[in-house]
C-alpha cells in the first residue's frame, strides 16, 4: 500500500502548474502613520466598542492602585496571576496581602490538574500582562510560555490585562514580525484577544461570556 | 470559520409572535442523521422551506441588514478594493504554489514538535483519530467548530466507537442536540427559535425551568461545557490558516471553545484540508482582516490563536502532543483540473451566502450537507460528484453577487456553468450524468438542422403549425415531452409566418 503523503504529493505535483499570479501592491493601513496619542485613542476606541474597559495610568504604582480599585469594584476575593515581566514588576503577592486578596500563581501548583482546578474553580479574576497591544483593532497579543499560561486569560470570569505603553503598536504585523522573526525561537502558543468571549448563536442576540471571560479590563501604563 | 458573532438587529418578530412547533422550523420532528448527505432532496426541502413562515421571517429580516454590515466593515479599510484584491492574490498564489507550500509547512510544523498525519480519505482521517483516542484511553472529546470534521463525519465515527463528542461552539452544540445539519456556516442554529432551544435544554436537563432569554440559555450551555473543558484529555479543532513560512496553525473564533480545546487537554488534534495553507504570516494577517470583516462584520474576532508545536517544557497547560491531520478527501484530484482549481480558494467566510438571492429564500437546509449557499454549490459537487448534486449547481440565477464579494476571488457563476456542461458531457471524474437518450437525440437533430440554412428554414416552417397545436388561446403552457420546461414557463403562440417571410411579402427584403 502506498504512502498517503506520497500519493497526495504525486497528484499535486503532476497537476499542470499555472503561472504564478503577480501580487498587487500591499494595501495601505492608515494606523501605521499614527502618532502615540492617536494609537492610544484608536486602541481604546476599538476595544471599548467590544465592551472592554480601558484605563490609562501614569506609572506602575498608579497601576497597582487602579488594579485594587477595579478588583474592589467587582467584589473579587481571589485572583490568579501570571508571572511575566510586567506582572512581576508589580509584586502582586505583596499587593494581595495589602488588599486582603488571595493571589494564586501557577508556580504554586503541583501539576496540570491542580492548575486547572485553580483557574476553573478558585479564581474570581485573572491578571496578566500583554506582550503587545495593537491599535488597529484594539487587540491584546499574549505570548504563552511558562510565565504566561494559556488558561489564566480564559477560564476566570474576568480578565484584567496590564500593558506598558511601549508595547502598543499600530498593526498586527508589528507584533507578528517580532514574534516570528527568529524561526528557531517561536513560542508554542500566541493569542490575540479583542474583548471578552462572546457569541450571538441564539437568534443573533449578542452576549458576552459564552465560554471565557464576561469582562475584560485593560490598564495602559505610561 | 469559527466566529460566532453576528451583529444582527434584535429579532423582535420572534419574541412577539408565537408559532406552533410545526411552523417553527421546517424540519421539526424529523431527526436528521448527523451528517447524512441529503443533497439530492434539494427541491423537496427547498419547497418546504419556502412555505416555512419561520425561515422566511428570519431570512427576510437579516437579508437587508447583514449585507450592509459587511459593507461597512469592509469600508473600515483605507482602500477596501485594494484590500480585497490583495487577499484574492494571496489565495491565488497559495494555490499556484500549493505542493511547495505544503511541504514547507510540514517541515516547519515538525521542526516545532508537531506530528503531521496525511490522510487521503475521510476514513483514513477518522481511523487515525480513533486509534489515537483508543491508545490514549480517551472517554470523550470536545470539538471546536470545524467544518472539515463535519465533512468527514468524525462525530459519528467516534460515537460508533463509544467515544462521546461534545460540540463546544454554542450553535454547533444546539445543532448537535437537535441532530440537524448547520443552517448556516457561521450560525449553525441561528434559525432555531428560543422556545425550541428552551424545550430542548429542559429535556436534556441543562435548565430547570423554561426561559425565553438567549443569555440564560447560553449560560446553561456554558455551565454544562465548562465541566467538559476542565477535565478534557483530548481536544479536536479545525484550522483556519496554516502558515508555510512558520509551520503555525491559526484559529479564529469568538467564544473561546477552540482556545479551551487547545489549552486544557494533553492531546490536541487539529484538522486541516490541503488548501488551507498560505505563504507567510503577513499574508495570514491580511486574510485574517478579510475573513473577520466578511464573516461577521467584525474588524477582528474576539480570539485568534496560533500554535507552533506542543507546549514547551515547564509550561503548565497546553498540549503535550499536537497532531495536525492534513486531509485530501478528493481535493488533489480537483487541483489537477485547472478549470476547477479555483474552487479551493474559499476561506469559508460565508459572505456569499448572505449575498445570494437563492440562499436568502430557502436557507441552509436544502443544500443537504455541511456546506450551503454559493460556497456549498461550488464545493459540494466537487466533493460528492455531479450526479448527487444536480439541483445545487442548477439552483443559481447567475447574478454574480457572490463572485463580486468573494475575498477568495472565486468566480462562482463560471464554475456553475462549467459543472452544468461537464454534467451534460458525462464527465467521468465528476460523475457527470450526460443527458437522457431522447434529449440527446433531440439535440443531435437540432445541431444537424442548424448547420444548413435550408434545413433550418424547412424545420422552422414545419415546426410552427405543430407547436401551435398546443396553444390555448394565444398561450402555450404544455407540450408533450417538455413538461419540465413548462413547469414554470409559458410560451406565446408563434406566428404562422416567420419574420423573414413577412419581410419578403412586403417586398422590402
Automatic annotation (TrEMBL), chain A:
Protein name stated in the entry: LUD domain-containing protein
Boundaries of every LUD domain copy: 41-221
A single Pfam family it belongs to is LUD_dom
Concerning SUPFAM superfamilies, the annotation shows: NagB/RpiA/CoA transferase-like
List the PANTHER family.
LACTATE UTILIZATION PROTEIN C
TrEMBL record, chain B:
Q: Where is the 4Fe-4S ferredoxin-type domain?
A: 336-365, 387-415
Any one Gene Ontology biological process term? Answer: lactate metabolic process
PROSITE patterns assigned: 4FE4S_FER_1, 4FE4S_FER_2
Could you tell me which residues belong to the region Disordered?
1-27
Keyword list, A-Z: 4Fe-4S, Electron transport, Iron, Iron-sulfur, Metal-binding, Repeat, Transport
Q: Name one GO molecular function term.
A: 4 iron, 4 sulfur cluster binding
Which InterPro entries does the record associate with it? Answer: 4Fe4S_Fe-S-bd (IPR017896), 4Fe4S_Fe_S_CS (IPR017900), FTHF_cligase-like_sf (IPR024185), Helical_ferredxn (IPR009051), LUD_dom (IPR003741), LutB/LldF (IPR004452), LutB_C (IPR024569), NagB/RpiA_transferase-like (IPR037171)
Q: Which domain of life is it from?
A: Bacteria
State the name under which the record lists this protein: Lactate utilization protein
Amino acid at each position: 500500500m502506498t504512502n498517503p503523503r506520497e500519493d497526495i504529493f504525486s497528484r499535486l505535483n503532476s497537476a499542470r502548474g499555472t503561472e504564478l499570479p503577480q501580487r498587487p501592491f500591499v494595501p495601505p493601513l492608515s494606523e501605521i502613520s499614527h502618532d502615540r496619542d492617536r494609537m492610544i485613542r484608536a486602541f481604546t476606541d476599538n476595544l471599548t466598542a467590544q465592551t472592554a474597559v480601558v484605563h490609562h495610568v501614569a506609572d506602575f504604582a498608579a497601576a497597582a492602585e487602579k488594579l485594587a480599585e477595579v478588583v474592589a469594584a467587582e467584589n473579587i476575593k481571589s485572583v490568579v496571576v501570571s508571572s511575566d515581566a510586567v506582572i512581576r514588576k508589580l509584586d502582586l503577592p505583596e499587593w494581595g496581602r495589602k488588599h486582603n486578596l488571595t493571589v494564586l500563581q501557577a508556580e504554586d501548583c503541583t501539576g496540570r490538574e491542580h492548575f486547572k482546578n485553580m483557574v476553573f474553580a478558585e479564581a474570581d479574576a485573572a491578571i496578566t500582562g500583554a506582550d503587545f497591544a495593537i491599535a488597529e483593532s484594539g487587540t491584546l497579543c499574549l505570548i504563552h510560555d511558562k510565565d504566561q499560561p494559556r488558561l489564566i486569560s480564559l477560564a476566570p470570569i474576568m480578565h484584567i490585562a496590564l500593558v506598558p505603553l511601549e508595547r502598543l503598536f499600530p498593526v498586527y504585523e508589528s507584533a507578528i514580525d517580532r514574534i516570528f522573526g527568529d524561526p528557531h525561537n517561536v513560542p508554542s502558543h500566541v493569542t490575540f484577544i479583542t474583548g471578552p468571549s462572546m457569541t450571538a448563536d441564539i437568534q443573533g442576540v449578542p452576549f458576552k461570556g459564552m465560554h471565557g471571560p464576561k469582562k475584560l479590563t485593560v490598564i495602559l501604563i505610561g | 470559520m469559527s466566529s460566532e458573532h453576528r451583529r444582527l438587529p434584535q429579532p423582535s418578530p420572534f419574541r412577539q409572535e408565537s408559532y406552533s412547533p410545526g411552523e417553527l422550523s421546517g424540519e421539526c420532528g424529523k431527526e436528521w442523521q448527523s451528517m447524512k448527505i441529503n443533497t439530492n432532496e434539494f427541491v423537496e426541502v427547498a419547497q418546504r422551506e419556502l412555505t416555512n413562515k419561520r425561515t422566511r421571517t428570519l431570512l427576510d429580516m437579516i437579508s437587508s441588514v447583514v449585507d450592509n454590515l459587511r459593507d461597512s466593515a469592509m469600508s473600515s479599510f483605507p482602500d477596501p478594493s485594494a484590500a480585497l484584491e490583495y487577499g484574492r492574490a494571496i489565495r491565488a498564489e497559495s494555490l499556484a504554489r500549493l505542493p511547495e507550500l505544503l511541504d514547507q509547512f510540514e517541515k516547519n510544523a515538525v521542526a516545532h514538535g508537531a506530528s503531521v498525519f496525511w490522510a487521503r480519505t475521510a476514513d483514513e482521517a477518522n481511523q487515525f483519530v480513533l486509534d489515537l483516542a483508543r491508545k490514549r484511553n480517551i472517554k470523550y472529546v470536545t470539538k471546536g467548530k470545524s467544518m472539515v470534521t463535519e465533512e468527514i463525519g468524525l462525530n459519528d465515527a467516534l460515537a460508533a466507537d463509544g467515544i462521546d463528542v461534545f460540540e463546544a461552539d454554542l450553535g454547533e452544540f444546539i445543532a448537535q442536540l437537535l441532530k440537524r445539519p448547520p443552517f448556516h456556516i457561521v450560525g449553525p442554529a441561528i434559525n432555531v427559535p428560543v422556545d425550541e432551544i428552551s424545550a430542548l435544554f429542559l429535556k436534556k436537563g441543562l435548565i430547570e425551568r423554561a426561559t425565553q432569554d438567549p443569555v440564560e440559555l447560553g449560560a446553561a450551555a456554558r455551565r454544562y461545557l465548562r465541566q467538559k473543558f476542565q477535565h478534557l484529555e483530548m481536544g479536536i479543532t479545525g484550522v483556519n490558516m496554516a502558515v508555510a513560512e512558520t509551520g503555525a496553525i491559526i484559529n479564529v473564533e469568538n467564544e473561546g471553545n477552540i482556545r479551551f480545546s487547545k489549552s486544557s487537554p494533553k492531546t490536541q488534534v487539529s484538522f486541516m484540508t490541503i488548501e488551507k495553507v498560505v505563504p507567510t504570516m503577513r499574508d495570514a494577517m491580511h486574510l485574517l482582516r478579510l475573513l473577520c470583516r466578511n464573516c461577521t462584520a467584525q474588524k477582528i474576532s474576539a480570539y485568534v490563536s496560533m500554535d507552533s508545536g506542543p507546549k514547551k517544557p515547564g509550561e503548565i497547560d497546553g498540549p503535550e502532543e499536537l497532531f495536525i491531520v492534513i486531509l485530501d478527501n478528493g481535493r488533489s484530484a480537483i487541483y489537477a483540473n485547472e478549470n476547477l482549481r479555483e474552487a479551493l480558494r474559499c476561506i469559508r467566510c460565508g459572505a456569499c451566502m448572505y449575498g445570494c438571492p437563492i440562499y436568502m429564500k430557502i436557507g441552509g437546509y436544502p443544500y443537504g450537507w455541511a456546506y450551503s449557499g454559493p460556497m456549498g454549490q461550488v464545493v459540494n459537487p466537487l466533493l460528492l460528484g455531479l450526479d448527487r448534486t444536480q439541483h445545487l449547481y442548477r439552483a443559481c440565477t447567475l447574478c454574480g453577487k457572490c463572485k463580486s464579494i468573494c475575498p477568495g476571488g472565486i468566480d462562482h457563476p463560471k464554475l456553475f456553468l462549467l459543472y452544468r456542461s461537464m454534467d451534460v458531457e458525462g464527465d467521468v471524474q465528476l460523475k457527470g450524468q450526460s443527458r437522457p437518450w431522447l434529449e440527446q437525440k433531440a439535440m443531435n437533430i437540432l445541431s444537424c438542422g442548424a448547420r444548413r440554412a435550408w434545413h433550418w428554414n424547412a424545420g422552422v416552417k414545419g415546426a410552427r403549425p405543430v407547436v401551435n397545436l398546443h396553444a390555448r388561446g394565444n398561450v402555450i403552457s404544455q407540450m408533450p415531452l417538455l413538461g419540465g420546461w413548462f413547469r414554470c414557463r409559458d410560451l406565446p403562440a408563434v406566428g404562422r409566418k416567420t419574420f423573414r417571410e413577412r419581410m419578403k411579402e412586403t417586398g422590402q427584403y
